[in-house]
Specification:
It is built from 13 helices and 57 strands. It has about 950 residues and is α+β, with helices and mostly antiparallel strands. The strands form 13 sheets. A 9-stranded parallel beta sheet has the order 9-8-7-6-5-4-12-11-10, with helices on one face. An 8-stranded antiparallel beta sheet has the order 13-14-15-20-21-24-27-26. The protein is elongated and about 110 Å long. The N terminus and C terminus are likely disordered. The structure holds 1-methylethyl 1-thio-beta-D-galactopyranoside (IPT). Keywords: Glycoprotein, Glycosidase, Hydrolase, Signal.
């Protein structure tokens, strides 16, 4: 097997680098400064390039099997390690990562790369894990995130984003000047990291002079900043001149998950290969996003299930793709205001291989089989399309390729009609054999949406594989013998033919195998049924023996392969194998179990013993195996008693808004006043004539958002329309006096800019308001998150809170003094008032040590109630629940936010639109799974409530005189 990754031996050196970085950090250097001062690690440098068909490392081609991962959707460096280890063990040799400008920059010139934003640490972990990185720093990233990755402060720029407009380019360069040095020092080319490619921009298709000038500017900037790895794209091939490898994005199933059993055609993307470049699928569908009101992620996972992935990804191999990145491998959570509302709600589970709560799915196991295969079959890196006679059964389709150097054949067989779910059998020509399988009474079976990638004429280590109707999962030389693991669907027949100079000795260790030896050809033909595990030892006279493991799907899925510098390791049994390493004759394995399991290890090195998570695992090397315990049971506290407090003082006429920001900029849009996330309050003052009958309001809250209005303390109602007339109830106006119109704009985040037409600049909040029945002008003030762009809570960052009274006063935080609040239990059926009320509770957890129990909060309520709720856990906004819209009712809380050994605070801000609605429904703590694990998830140090920050200074101005805002633009 070609092991393209840097040897695991580099782990030790990687740790040294990480410690060096830490030491530098402790001197208070900024990221950019430490980039300059950081000593060059004495590590071998590498070259990264490409030939006509594949990426090359040190001149050697390799297949890239990559999964997309966004660290900013998982705010815990320990959990980064978890996900990257899961990806590596799951057959991914690379991960593609967007770096989100918005996540790092609250204000022009202000950047944060600490804590959950420490991308140096992220890239060190990638190196420690041994996974390559495709870095995608934008500046624009799309990604269903706030502004498509553009920071809030960029939204008020005059110049067109994603063009050569000078103000935009200056800002983009500011970001790149911060992120590029970090990326540069983690390049494989420096020997200091595992970055192998750098994507310029994202899905950009402005094929204009300015578009090319813009991309060229970004290319020049990257090179000037020390980026030496290949520059890649995903721009439909428009920028082949500027970029080294132009990739292609494809989501053949689309993003509507409501018909999850319907497949679209699988595309032949071979035409997207650019001359002299490998066929790179920069994003290929690994799931789908789901919008507000959508069918939910279980449906998306079904739409893009293991069968789909297998058929689609093998189809891509049949199209000649040697670089595939699956979007997403792990989606995570768009916590806070990360979710761009036109596409998604808080969960970014994406129906991906690894669930939002970090648990593995059926898709993951399918991906693992494929990933192991592409990493072990080196001839895949250079193939040409081959034309071969169609299968005997015309319902089936085959697509073939051949390696021109060594003749290895690749055949992908599936149903012609992707929606055909019949069980079909066939014979077909493979290699020199006109009709396979040869065994009378057997056939190749394609059941439903199965797809099979069959190899022929393959020099498999020391063996000559003529063909197999089983699929290869992995193979390699394990010390004195070769090992190959092949699989097929349970109950299907398999036929494998190997060629030898002399008749080998064949020993069937387990299962049933019929062997046929043809002395004339030297063919050893094995026939068997895929059923559990069939093991065959083949010992050819005078050459390397082969251990053949013939498994059904489910059995194959129990195998894990993680290589060490001392050779490959194959282990079966546990839910997950995370790491493998040799030391002093001991093979040290770490991993997880979700139930009791039996660990078997196949290795070639002279290990005398095995440890599992540091404990002796006697028998792991023998046929008996060693038993591994499953996790202990976990009981969770019930969230019984809550503290309740209704706020919304802003709606009351007597509220003092003197300290609020006057809307004096010819616009009401909140971004212009430095408020870029969450809810915005507006208070408008006018002198009523008495003839006013309605308020005409214009607002853009973003999809899923809502705005609520009060006049002189009387609730007028709510809307999500762009323009809405709020009727004025009689008796509400105060003719000749100051009248106060209060509007709470419960916004969602910003649009993306996928089409490069500045759509991310769509304003948030009120955009205008006028009175029906009089020409009186309204003077406005507005209020958003405490501090605006000057963050009061840089740990949780710019997207965690908005401008609710409770948020500005720290009611979302641990330690807020809620002692005087009313005690209630949930569901709370007391009649509430429209507007904002807070529910707070605390609970202690002490989960069993050495267990990973992904937790979340689940809401249950009557959908007829109209409200939204901001879900805060220990001060982190874990998500937005919209009771009457959905579909999300359960909110996984990421490990960095939740304390599994300690005190937790849940605070829920309920924004009710119902004039006489009930209180909050049921909220419970939920465990999504339970695993033993060697990993520790440390708490993220984050500030709690403090009087100094959150007890607002008393405003001195009298709100009834002299505090009226300037008149806004009409
Ligand atoms: C592609 C984007 O590049 C990526 O950021 C993400 O938004 C993805 O879509 C969908 O999840 S663009 C492609 C759909 C045309």
């Amino acid at each position: 097997m070609s092991m393209p990754l840097p040897p695991m031996g580099s782990i030790a050196r990687g740790v040294t680098v990480a410690l060096t970085a830490l030491a530098l950090g402790s001197f208070g250097l900024t990221a950019a400064e430490s980039a300059q001062t950081r000593p060059h690690a004495a590590e071998p440098t590498h070259t990264v390039g490409h030939d006509n068909t594949a990426l090359t490392i040190d001149g050697k081609p390799l297949s890239i099997w990559s999964g997309e991962f966004h660290y900013w959707r998982l705010p815990s460096p320990d959990a980064w390690r978890d996900v990257l280890q899961k990806m590596k063990a799951g057959g991914f040799n690379a991960t593609s990562i967007y770096f989100d400008w918005d996540f790092h920059s609250p204000k022009p010139g202000v950047y944060d790369f600490k804590g959950i934003r420490d991308v140096d640490k992220l890239l060190d972990i990638a190196k420690e894990v041994g996974i390559y990185v495709i870095a995608r720093p934008g500046p624009y990233i799309n990604a269903e995130t706030d502004g498509g990755g553009f920071p809030g402060w960029l939204l008020t720029q005059k110049g067109k984003a994603r063009s050569t407009a000078p103000d935009y380019l200056a800002a983009a360069d500011e970001w790149l000047s911060r992120i590029d040095p970090i990326l540069a020092r983690h390049q494989l080319t420096n020997g200091t990291g595992t970055i192998i490619a750098y994507q310029v921009e994202n899905e950009y298709y402005q094929n204009t002079d300015d578009g090319h000038a813009y991309i060229q500017h970004l290319v020049d900037k990257a090179r000037a900043d020390g980026i030496t790895v290949p520059l890649t794209g995903n721009h439909y091939g428009l920028f082949t001149k500027e970029l080294d490898i132009e990739g292609y994005d494809a989501y053949p199933q689309g993003f509507n998950c409501s018909s999850p059993d319907k497949w679209q055609d699988l595309p032949d993307l071979s035409g997207e290969k650019k001359p002299g470049e490998p066929l790179f699928l920069a994003e290929f569908q690994g799931g789908a996003f789901d919008p507000w009101g959508g069918p939910g992620y279980d449906k998306c996972r079904q739409l893009t299930n293991g069968d789909f992935e297998k058929a689609a990804y093998e189809n891509n191999i049949a199209s000649g793709a040697t670089m595939q990145n699956f979007y997403m491998a792990y989606g995570g959570t768009s916590w806070g205001w990360l979710a761009s509302p036109e596409s998604v709600y808080s969960s970014y589970d994406y129906g991906a291989s690894i669930r939002e709560d970090r648990q593995l799915t059926e898709k993951y196991l399918v991906n693992k089989r494929l990933g192991y295969m592409v990493q072990s079959v080196a001839p895949l890196t250079k193939t040409e399309k081959a034309t071969v006679a169609a299968p005997e059964n015309s319902a089936l389709l085959r697509r073939d390729r051949r390696n021109p150097d060594n003749g290895t054949g690749i055949t992908v067989v599936r149903h012609k009609d992707v929606d055909d779910k019949a069980e079909d059998t066939t014979h077909l020509a493979l290699g020199d054999y006109p009709s396979v399988p040869q065994e009378p009474g057997t056939a190749l079976t394609i059941d439903g949406r199965d797809s099979k990638l069959l190899l022929s004429d393959y020099a498999m280590d020391h063996q000559q594989l003529r063909y197999s109707t089983s699929e290869l999962m992995t193979h390699g030389t394990f010390g004195p013998r070769d090992v190959a693991l092949l699989y097929g669907r349970h109950g299907q027949d398999g036929e494998t033919v190997l060629r030898y100079a002399d008749r080998p000795e064949v020993q069937v260790i387990s299962g049933r195998v019929k062997q046929t030896w043809d002395p004339a050809s030297g063919d050893l033909r094995l026939n068997y049924r895929h059923d559990g595990l069939t093991q065959v030892r083949i010992t050819p006279p005078g050459s390397t023996p082969l251990l053949l493991l013939l498994a059904d799907d489910a059995t194959a899925d129990t195998y894990w392969r993680l290589d060490t510098p001392q050779g490959p390791v194959l282990a079966s049994g546990p839910e997950l194998l995370r790491t493998s390493a040799y030391g002093d004759g001991v093979l040290k394995l770490t991993g997880d179990t979700d139930k009791a399991a039996n660990l078997h290890v196949v290795t070639g090195t002279p290990a005398t013993s095995v440890t599992w998570n540091g404990r002796p695992a006697n028998g792991a090397l023998d046929s008996t195996g060693t038993p591994l315990a499953g996790p202990g049971p976990v009981t969770l506290p019930t969230l019984g008693s809550w503290k309740y407090h209704a706020e919304t003082p802003e709606a009351q006429p007597g509220f003092d808004d003197a300290a609020w920001r006057a809307a004096d900029k010819q616009t009401l849009s909140a971004d212009n006043y430095g408020f870029h996330a969450g809810s915005i309050w507006y208070r408008g003052h006018f002198t009523a004539t008495g003839a006013e009958t309605a308020v005409k309001a214009d607002a853009t809250t973003g999809r899923g958002g809502r705005y609520l209005a009060w006049l002189n303390g009387t609730y007028l109602g709510s809307s999500d329309d762009a323009t809405h007339h709020f009727g004025i109830p009689s008796g509400t106006l105060k003719p000749g006096k100051d009248n106060v119109l209060a509007v709470l704009s419960a916004n969602t985040a910003h649009q993306q800019d996928w089409s490069a037409d500045d759509s991310h600049k769509e304003p948030r909040g009120l955009t205008g308001a006028s009175l029906v029945g009089s020409a009186e002008q309204i003077g406005w003030r507005l209020q958003g998150a405490l501090g605006g762009e000057d963050l009061v809570d840089p740990v949780r960052g710019p997207l965690n809170t908005g401008g609710l009274y409770g948020e500005r006063h720290g009611m979302h935080l641990p330690g807020y003094p809620d002692g005087a609040w009313q005690s209630v239990s949930l569901p709370n059926s007391r009649k509430g008032a429209p507007g904002v009320s807070w529910y707070r509770t605390t609970f202690d957890l002490d989960l069993p040590k050495g267990q990973d129990v992904p937790l979340g909060l689940t809401f249950k309520d009557d959908k007829a109630k109209h409200y939204r709720a901001l879900v805060y856990v220990n001060g982190w906004m874990a998500g937005l629940y919209v009771n009457d819209l959905g579909p999300q009712t359960t909110f996984p809380v990421q490990p960095g936010m939740l304390r599994t050994h300690g005190h937790n605070t849940v605070a829920i801000a309920m924004i009710s639109e119902d004039a006489n609605g009930d209180g909050l429904g049921d909220v419970s703590l939920e465990a999504y799974g339970n695993h033993t694990t060697p990993l520790h998830y440390r708490d993220i140090a984050s500030p709690g409530w403090s009087a100094a920050v959150y007890r607002a200074p008393r405003a001195t101005a009298d709100m009834r005189t002299g505090s009226r805002g300037a008149r806004p633009a009409r």
